[in-house]
Task: inverse folding
């Protein structure tokens, strides 16, 4: 079955790796689809949906003051600093992962010490590194986009509400802030996805276990507390 023109030698170990990878994708995709359907039926089901309402209320409160407020600037600066730190962390991780590409042949025996079911082909190892890099670049660009929008909101939120700017109404500013929050959430989610990708280096069975555990953790993170959800529904 081997062919030197293929990316790597196709054997049952390679098939096990690829099947495990696609199963993990299906698990995560099914979870996020299920969460989306639950939010459509119950907008208070996830903490992200409630955070959108909270951010909208915060913008309306800050702009209703009618004058620039240091609280809004400080809050946005904290969000920007957090996104900057996480984007910088992604860059450092990208540099670290890049060094692995030059040492794939040397580190292969170490990474595959517990790999009893998956392929040990060095070229498949490079594929794993590329997928990990793609995830890290998603992290980086998501947080940099969040920083960009947070900066725009910093200018918009201090425009006096009494000027009645149609394009800088509280609703428009809140939409921009929620957009930044969405980019931030995507970056954090991509950070979480690093876990199964890293465990894939040790073997496909580790990646499957990590994906199942990650899905359970994501559910705990995404699910809004019952008290908070009840208060939201009462309004």
Result:
């Amino acid at each position: 079955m081997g062919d030197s023109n293929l990316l790597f030698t196709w054997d049952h170990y390679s098939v096990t790796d690829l099947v495990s990878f696609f199963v993990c994708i299906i698990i995560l995709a099914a979870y996020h689809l299920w969460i989306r359907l639950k939010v459509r039926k119950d907008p208070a089901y996830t903490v992200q949906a409630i955070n959108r309402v909270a951010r909208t209320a915060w913008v309306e409160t800050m702009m209703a003051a009618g004058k620039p407020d240091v609280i809004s600037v400080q809050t946005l600066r904290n969000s920007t600093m957090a996104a900057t730190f996480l984007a910088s962390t992604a860059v450092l991780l990208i540099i670290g992962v890049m060094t692995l590409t030059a040492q794939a042949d040397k580190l292969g025996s170490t990474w595959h010490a517990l790999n009893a079911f998956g392929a040990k082909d060095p070229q498949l190892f490079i594929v794993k590194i590329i997928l990990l890099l793609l995830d890290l670049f998603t992290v980086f660009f998501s947080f940099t986009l969040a920083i960009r929008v947070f900066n725009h909101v910093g200018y918009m939120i201090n425009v006096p509400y009494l000027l009645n700017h149609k394009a800088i109404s509280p609703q428009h500013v809140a939409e921009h802030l929620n957009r930044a929050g969405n980019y931030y959430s995507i970056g954090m989610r991509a950070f979480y996805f690093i876990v199964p990708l890293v465990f894939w280096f040790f073997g496909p069975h580790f990646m499957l276990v990590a994906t199942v555990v990650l899905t359970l953790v994501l559910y705990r993170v995404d699910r809004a507390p019952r008290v908070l959800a009840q208060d939201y529904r009462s309004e």
Notes: Confidence is low (pLDDT under 50) at residues 1-8. The first helix runs from residue 12 to 41. The chain has one domain: 12-226. The CA atoms of residues 24 and 30 lie 10 Å apart.
